[in-house]
Automatic annotation (TrEMBL):
Residues 6-396 form the Major facilitator superfamily (MFS) profile domain. The lineage of its organism: Bacteria, Pseudomonadati, Pseudomonadota, Gammaproteobacteria, Aeromonadales. Its main location: membrane. One of its GO terms (molecular function) is transmembrane transporter activity. PANTHER family: MULTIDRUG RESISTANCE PROTEIN MDTG (PTHR43414). InterPro entries: MFS, MFS_dom, MFS_trans_sf, Tet-R_TetA/multi-R_MdtG-like. Keywords: Cell membrane, Membrane, Transmembrane, Transmembrane helix, Transport. This is MFS transporter.
Amino acid sequence: MHWKVVLGILTCNVVLMSASYTMLIPFLPLYLANDLHADPETVNMWTGAIFAVCFAVTAVMAPVWGKMSDSKGRKLMVMRSSALIAVAYFLCGIVTTPLELFGVRILQGFAAGLWPASLSLMSAYVPKAKVGISMGVMQSANICGGIIGPLFGGILAETFGMRVSFFIAGGALTLITLVTLFFIKEPPRQVAPAPSKNAKAQTSPYRALLHSSTIRMLLLCTGLTNMVILLLQPIMTLYIGQLRGTQENLMMVSGFVFSFSGIAGAIAAPIWGRQGQAHGFFKTEIISLFAAGVLICSQFIPSTLIPFAILNFIVGLGFSGIFPSANSMIIMHTDPAQRGTAFGLLFSAQQIGGTVGPLLGGALATFIGLSYIFPIAGSLLVLMSIFLYFKAPAQMRTNPHSDAKAQVDAKRQETIERIKQEVLEKMRAERPTTNKAKQ
């Protein structure tokens, strides 16, 4: 299959995946209170538990699914995840108690991994020269789904109720499963190099990857970034209400402010991808981390909503370069036979950050106030960018695409010089014969 066809199909899949997730998750507290009749005093406890258990299970299982995508097939892992998530959504629509929803969320965490599986599948098709733009387009699709989901989910919940929203989301994931089954071919499986005869034992693929300082640095970077995102998200609506001075139509207004960042990200992600391809993904990672951190710190300054919303748009421009650059570096710095495992580890690191972020954000909001969370969160990203700049290994700083291009250019120049030399030698060999003929 042509890589552009695969990119088009997977982009549509990712939009459906992200929209299905975000049309449900923001409204889980309301679902607990209104449909499952949770005690008002325990709604917050159930909400925290239901979020945390899914992240925790996903963090454990993601590397396992990643390894299986390398050994069993990447298309199979996409279908596994989308089918099981579809089942989980359908079950969420029929549960009657908070405890049952908690159990289904465990299943959802077990099923998770569609995003890294899709990235791994795409990496098997995309040429190295197009990695940056492909990862940028996939990230834009993820962001676009995140914009559509809450708006569409709010309308559905108001009109038909939350249960219908779960069934529609389950249908969308079923569609992803069928599209993948019938329209995408399993890419040729890459075989990992055989261990040497003198090796004591074959190294675990996890240990082999974690032995790389580049991979460890990327795991730290993406985990911290996701922690910052989920440190801010739970308090954002409350802070917007504080800036407005009223709770009237708060959900609608918050949805628009959230969408500004998403729209900016959808626009900027492919641009970051192109810049990374041209100038190096390490540089774009540093710049996007630093820019996002500084801009988040500056959100502490506005005392009214409009400047804050404008800054939130600009923050999206900076944030959208972090994950595509990290994903591209994973592709560039891992063996094709280990990319599924690598993306699984990366996704696991993000889930760990996603588990810590809301807990830390809630504690900070309780003890120091909402506004101070922004400079703390932004400073974490700025410090990460500085740490990455000074401590990143030499291998991570290289641009494999540029190096490969330089090698090709060198070989081409060498071939040209060799042909010139052969022509000159041939001309010299023919000269005596020509002189004798004249005599």
